[in-house]
Write a structure and sequence with these properties.
Strands 1-2-3-4-5-6 form a six-stranded antiparallel sheet, covered by helices on one side. It starts with 6 loop residues before the first helix and ends in a 7-residue tail after the last helix. The protein contains four helices and six strands. By secondary structure, the chain is α+β, with helices and mostly antiparallel strands.
Length: 189
C-alpha cells in the first residue's frame, strides 16, 4: 500500500491554507500604527514639551511674579532672542529639526508641516492672550482640511492653542485630533 496524499487531499489542503491566508492578511495589515494617529500625537507632544521648555526658560522669559506677571512676553529682549513679533516663533523653531523653512511655515523630517503665523506678538500683561499653531500631519499633501469642514473625509490639519501661561489645548472644532490625543491619556485643560 502506497503512503501518499491523493490529489483531492492536496487540493483541500491548499484551499484551507488559502482561506486562512485570506482571513489573516487583512488583520495583519491593520495591526500597524496609523501614521495619522502617530503624527497627531507626536505633534501635540512635541508642542507641549517645547512650550513648557520655553515658558520655563528663565533667560528667555524671566519669572516676573513680583510684577504680578508671568507668561510669554515678546516685548523685551532676553538671551539670544530679540524683542519683537518673532521671538516666540524663533525660539520654538530652534527646538525643532527643520528641513524646509519659510519663515512662519516650516516642515520637519517626519513630514509635519507647522504654521506659526498666528503664534506671534505675545503681549505683556495680557493673561487672556492666546495664539495657535496650525499643524498639517502630511505636509502639503491633500486633502489639507480640518475636521470642522463638512467636505473633509480625512482631516489632516488641526490647531493647537497656546495660552499666555504656557497651557495648550486643541481647538474644539478639531474633534478628530482631540479624539486621537485623548484615546490613551487625559488632555490637559
Amino acid at each position: 500500500m502506497k503512503k501518499a496524499f491523493s490529489l483531492a487531499e492536496m487540493l483541500m489542503a491548499i484551499v484551507i491554507l488559502g482561506i486562512i491566508t485570506a482571513l489573516t492578511i487583512p488583520v495583519l495589515l491593520n495591526k500597524g500604527p496609523n501614521s495619522g494617529v502617530v503624527l497627531t500625537k507626536k505633534a501635540y507632544t512635541v508642542t507641549e514639551k517645547i512650550v513648557s521648555s520655553l515658558i520655563n526658560d528663565p533667560v528667555l522669559y524671566p519669572d516676573r511674579t513680583h510684577e504680578q506677571y508671568q507668561g510669554f512676553d515678546d516685548t523685551e529682549s532676553h538671551g539670544d532672542y530679540s524683542a519683537g513679533a518673532n521671538k516666540f516663533r524663533d525660539a520654538f523653531k530652534a527646538k525643532l529639526n527643520i528641513t524646509n523653512d519659510d519663515g512662519d511655515k516650516f516642515t520637519t523630517p517626519d513630514g509635519l508641516h507647522w504654521d506659526l503665523t498666528n503664534a506671534r506678538n505675545w503681549a505683556k500683561n495680557n493673561a487672556a492672550d492666546e495664539k495657535y499653531i496650525m499643524i498639517d500631519i502630511n505636509s502639503e499633501n491633500l486633502p489639507n482640511c480640518r475636521y470642522n469642514d463638512p467636505a473633509c473625509k480625512a482631516p489632516d490639519q488641526f490647531w493647537i492653542y497656546i495660552q499666555n501661561n504656557g497651557r495648550i489645548r486643541i481647538d474644539a472644532a478639531d474633534e478628530y485630533a482631540i479624539k486621537v490625543i485623548t484615546a490613551h491619556s487625559e488632555l490637559r485643560k
